[in-house]
Amino acid sequence: MSSSQPTPSGPTAAQYVVEHYQKTYELTYEFWKERNNLFLWLVVFLAAVTLFVSLGRPNANSLLVVWVSKTIGLTNQADIDTLKNSINFDLLQTLALAVVFYLTVNLYHRTQNVIRFYKYLGELETEIRSTLNLPTNSIAFTRESSYYWNKRSRLLGLIKYVYIFILLVLLGGFVILRLYEDWLTGWNLFRVANVIIALAIALYFGGYVWVSKDS
Length: 215
Hints:
Blueprint: H1 13-54, H2 57-72, H3 77-86, H4 89-132, H5 146-151, H6 154-185, H7 189-212
Helix pairs in contact: 1-4, 1-6, 4-7, 6-7
């Protein structure tokens, strides 16, 4: 009576790796979408706040009072005048810088994760191909590694420089305008905070440029 070896059941090592690859790709795609949304929010916010600051303190303050009044339904002129006198423009501009810093840090973080995860996916593809013993001329599991780099157009590779240039112009214009006005109007605690936040923005923007070179 002959005996036979039991047929193994359950996922194999290759299936575990492929499943991990798919989950990593989904996570990477989510980071990619978040990175793109953060870039758009940063550009829109920078454009809006730069335009607002360029109006000058009196005009910008009046515009802000009108917007707040309409938002909260304020119609009494005495209350509107009180609101106008109570708004701290220096505080608002420092808060605007803080928002720019927050968006810049998150853009750097998401960009770093996206690039790191895509590199990881590329190495996973090599591991999967080795595990499955795929022939060298097969394109299976090369989407994020050799196939991507061989088929990517040169124009696509230039996009990162366009993004960097857009942010450099908007970030530089906003921060320089902000600090230049501080220089003209004199220094106080808010303006010292502005310098510190501006330096932090420059640091993380530099980090964003540095990690983007590998994309």
